[in-house]
Amino acid sequence: MPCTVTMTVNGKTVSREVEERTLLVTFLREHVGLTGTHVGCDTSQCGACVVHVDGRSVKSCATLALQVDGATVTTIEGLAAADGALHPMQAAFREHHGLQCGFCTPGMVMSAVDLVNSNPSLSEQDIREGLEGNICRCTGYHNIVKAVQAGAEAMNADQAAKIAAE
Amino acid sequence: MANPNGVGASVRRREDPRFLTGRGNYTDDFKRPNMTHMVHVRSPYAHALVKGIDASAALAAPGVVAVLTGADMEADKVGSLPCGWQIHSKDGSPMKEPGHFPLARGRVRYVGDAVAVVIAETKDQARDAAELVMVDYEELPAVAASTRAATPEAPQVHDEAPGNVCYDWHLGDKAAVDSAFAQAAHVAKIDLVNNRLVPNAMEPRAALGEYDPSSGEHTLTTTSQNPHVIRLLMGAFVLGIPEHKLRVVAPDVGGGFGSKIFHYGEEAVVTWAAKKIGRPVKWTADRSESFLTDAHGRDHVSHAELAMDKDGHFLGLRVATLANLGAYLSTFAPSIPTYLYATLLAGQYKTPAIYAEVKAVFTNTAPVDAYRGAGRPEACYLIERLVDIAAGVAGLDRVEIRRRNFVPASAMPYQTPVALQYDSGDFAKNLDIALPLVDYDGFAARKAASKAKGKLRGIGFSTYIEACGIAPSNVAGALGARAGLYESAEVRFHPTGSVTVFTGSHSHGQGHETTFAQLVSQRFGVPIENVEIVHGDTAKIPFGMGTYGSRSLAVGGSAIVKAMDKVERKAKKIAAHMLEAAETDIEVKEGRFTVAGTDKSLGIGDIALQAYVPHNFPLDELEPGLDEQAFYDPKNFTYPNGCHVCEVEIDPDTGVTQVVAFSAVDDFGNVINPLIVEGQVHGGIVQGIGQALLENCVYDDESGQLLTGSYMDYCMPRADDVPSFTVRYHEDQPCTHNPLGVKGCGEAGTIGASAAVMNAVVDALGDFGVTHLDMPATPEKIWRVIQDATPAMAAE
């Protein structure tokens, strides 16, 4: 049965008529045309599909689009600034070679941002455990950990600067 | 001042911006006007006759455009998926090569074997309709384990392969080995399993077929590591499409690790179907479909013996391996347990006599083929486990027995008794760097500290060598390869001095868009942002063999060097003309062409402009333009080598193994981009740790059902399963036979790591009398070993 789902994606309101069984990841990829969010598995373990819903990371393959009707969704495409400047976490992944084939990367970066937002002072162990829901086959995680540490530092510095300015 | 974007620099990757912002172009991302979606009907049985297919309900379902079967393909004269490497048995007879059809013709031989496809307007409609296709199966007895398949009572997978034997092959000198054993003072033996693995690149396989009736041209977009190979195999052998009418595009590909080398049936089905129904057809695997149908890796059962003299010098090695090829021959399958495995059984040692026998059998499981390392992890694991056991038998320290038997650097180039000739390497040096790096001397104290906390600590070594950078075409051909293994490159200067390099290599994570550009920037002084690397599209690039076997820099990079040599030769002539000097007086350095002893000079950009606007140009001697192509056929394999050291701590109450430290000291010859090389090593190490401790692809032997069919049952390494690593390399032993002096690094981590982990685990369990444990060393397995040993210990 079709239904109409409306949400804000990367700052824009989108409204589509979809079947009720439509997953959020399918909604984003097929109906909104944002293919940055990826499908890597069918048991909601790999994390390639992670997006932010109302500011928290969510596996979009385990969410129905209609579950987030009315919500604010941010995908990897919406992370960089409007002028194209990379989010500090994106920049950190590049600086520390935290990606190779790039397929797990959107979900990994979105998870990492949420991880830092939830806990600004992460240890290496916190990062490794926090990313348990994101599988990477290429990097061996070594540089991902370094990237998240650097991204956290940069995000914290930005946050401190923002507070100082207020 | 060194070029910050030249050879040896850790240049940050140029491919990253699109991946980091969600703008990668993976096959499933593509949409075409009027596109349809394809879903397979796959056999739920490991072995069955297909008596009939009733598609009537499916055809009536909403959105369904077509339902196609093996009979439809047969009627259109579609051929069998070809095998690219022929092996001969001991008696000289060629291997058995049963038919391997994109859609089954009358019989299915593994769970997941494709029976039919449903093509519909949407993927959901295709999925729904696929469930309505009624297939009449007559189930047959099945066999999944290679050991049972090799017995006379086992079900026969293929009528034309009696005893399920594909080939029974050997390599080496049996008489010399028998003689060595006759004189041996010590003999070490091992029985081991190299467990089957699922490669599990994070991007599932996908294929998009299109047909343009105006031009008669087919286009296949596919998750492949080697588009030209697919074009050749599919065009010539399967669909009968002339190559100039078939374009294959491998866009951004989300990892391959070997599993995306092969020509899979789905590629042929979408290409054929697109013309048949007159609309583009896209297929994307579900992860569970990938588990069932991607080529699996490893799956060897081996017995090996090592003969030694009284001082622990290796005299002879004999190996017997049973290799599982699965239900059908995948593209390179026969070569993996033969020429990519047995030829590495010398390892880093000067064992004078080696004899290996490999019997390869068919079973009712997914086809098995190359997976990161492809034969070399199997060889390294066997040797390095056996050497540890040999140390115990000979009463020698595990480090000392290795040192005593290393091929010394002074013996290079070294001809092994198993066909390969190592060009360079200093194995003792790798060990000398590793020992202080891992504080080997301090291990005893760390072990005691662990014991005081109730934990078991072990340390393990893996001194590995591998052969990659495949391969010299005539050697490969003599050994049964049905393809050449050269690589191509075109270096095109544009009038305004920017450069496009067209390469037959493919990048699916390796960073070639960066590293190949570094080569050009270093050679000609062109700013790296003005160098573009194009790969993956057969319409744009000269014929190339693709990326696998750690060959991209060694072979692909060397082709680029040859093309750059041609560019430089031509540029020198142009410069001589422009500078009114003799060609012999022109000195070339990093893209500047200077008349010797003067300050009259030109940059490559000036020369490129002149080449395309030839107003002051030697037109009577030279053609305009600055655009050169080269093909490079390697003279030998390359031989990366190293020393991996793993330290583990096991909790005897739970059997859980923690990798507390892993260090790799490697010789990759010259290194172009250290950041990328280290990344390759990290990733490879984790795949090796995965095999040793976590991963196992398990089939139920009687039913042939895949028990580990998703990430819930197949344990992938996650971030909290592994530590950070210590990686070192040295460049003192460049490759002697390619212009870059590079050896390749893509597989080395995986090749060395499993043995280091297992040697550490066995070391940790030494007090329990354990001399060997098969992979994966899961907590349950370790816990049981400890439980079984403990009553005996309590009794002591």
From TrEMBL, chain A:
<keyword id="KW-0001">2Fe-2S</keyword>
<keyword id="KW-0560">Oxidoreductase</keyword>
<dbReference type="InterPro" id="IPR051452">
    <property type="entry name" value="Diverse_Oxidoreductases"/>
</dbReference>
<dbReference type="GO" id="GO:0051537">
    <property type="term" value="F:2 iron, 2 sulfur cluster binding"/>
</dbReference>
<dbReference type="GO" id="GO:0016491">
    <property type="term" value="F:oxidoreductase activity"/>
</dbReference>
<dbReference type="GO" id="GO:0046872">
    <property type="term" value="F:metal ion binding"/>
</dbReference>
<dbReference type="InterPro" id="IPR001041">
    <property type="entry name" value="2Fe-2S_ferredoxin-type"/>
</dbReference>
<protein>
    <submittedName>
        <fullName>(2Fe-2S)-binding protein</fullName>
    </submittedName>
</protein>
<keyword id="KW-0408">Iron</keyword>
<dbReference type="InterPro" id="IPR036010">
    <property type="entry name" value="2Fe-2S_ferredoxin-like_sf"/>
</dbReference>
<keyword id="KW-0411">Iron-sulfur</keyword>
<feature type="domain" description="2Fe-2S ferredoxin-type">
    <location>
        <begin position="3"/>
        <end position="79"/>
    </location>
</feature>
<dbReference type="InterPro" id="IPR036884">
    <property type="entry name" value="2Fe-2S-bd_dom_sf"/>
</dbReference>
<dbReference type="Pfam" id="PF01799">
    <property type="entry name" value="Fer2_2"/>
</dbReference>
<keyword id="KW-0479">Metal-binding</keyword>
<dbReference type="InterPro" id="IPR012675">
    <property type="entry name" value="Beta-grasp_dom_sf"/>
</dbReference>
<dbReference type="InterPro" id="IPR002888">
    <property type="entry name" value="2Fe-2S-bd"/>
</dbReference>
<dbReference type="Pfam" id="PF00111">
    <property type="entry name" value="Fer2"/>
</dbReference>
